[in-house]
Structure prediction request, 321 residues.
Amino acid sequence: MRHFARHFVMLFLFCGLTQMVAAQSYPTKPIRLVIPYPPGGPTDFVGRAVAAKLGELLGQQMVVDNRPGAGTVIATEMIVRAAPDGYNLLFGTGGGTFLAPLILPKVPYDPRKDLAPVAMLVMSPQVLVVHPATGAKSVKELIAVAKSKPGQLNFSSVGTGTSPHLGGELFKSLAGVDIVHVPYKGTAPGMIDLIAGRVQLAFSSIPTVLAHVQAGRLRMLGTGGTKRSPALPDIPPIADTLPGFELVTWYALFAPVGTPATIVNRLNSDTAKVLKDADIQKRFGEQGLETTLMTPQELKRYTESDMSRWARLIKAANIKQ
Prediction:
């Protein structure tokens, strides 16, 4: 028995020493960052900006690998099945990585069990915009209009089960109104119909609607954050009128489960330095993106809580694809 205990302790120490050595020499080759969306969009913009700065700190190139498709399942499964050695990272999103398993019928992984949280990157509140013809100039007024016209106001989204769709369903639930979901295949066609007045309201990212709001084509009523956004100091949170409303876009780094904690902590520490970089702060701030520091443990708690919150709404609203 003593021999077994001694052997176990030696094995434990050996494994710990091996991890320390690996972390000290890491990285020794380029690191792949898989992004589940096509090049050119806001997700790609953040991912590439972080990858460039993080690569400088690590002393190795970070190779961006865009793998769109299947509601982020293709990219996520690729990382779940990759070697847990610190050279394969996922640019995860709250609207895809942790929502896809709740919406799609068969997803071959559980992000809570198969991904190791590395670092939160940014958060950005989605915003509620309406066509001026609604006459609503506040969230309270929009609720009144919706209650006076049950089933007559339509809200657009970029597809069933996406964040804008869930934002509309959460609004319906908390406000007690009957508004109709109209899904589109992409941002552009939905925005065209919103500006034309064929749909009356939408939840969207700040960069997507800001120019239209400034031109008077749309009216912004509220943000999905729990506090005012530095990018929109004059726009109140929707939660001021509907307590409990929260709709934010977030981006974070994940690795395959089993990636050594020493490497995860190294990546987290260097990512924190990237997010404090003045150039990154400026570039992200101009897009309404708020850099957000979290430890791997904090990120794990946040993503699990976020997933549980949306799971309850998805079940209650019977949202399926």
Summary: Residues 94 and 306 are 8 Å apart (CA to CA). Confidence is low (pLDDT under 50) at residues 8-15. The longest strand covers residues 115-125. The radius of gyration is 22 Å.
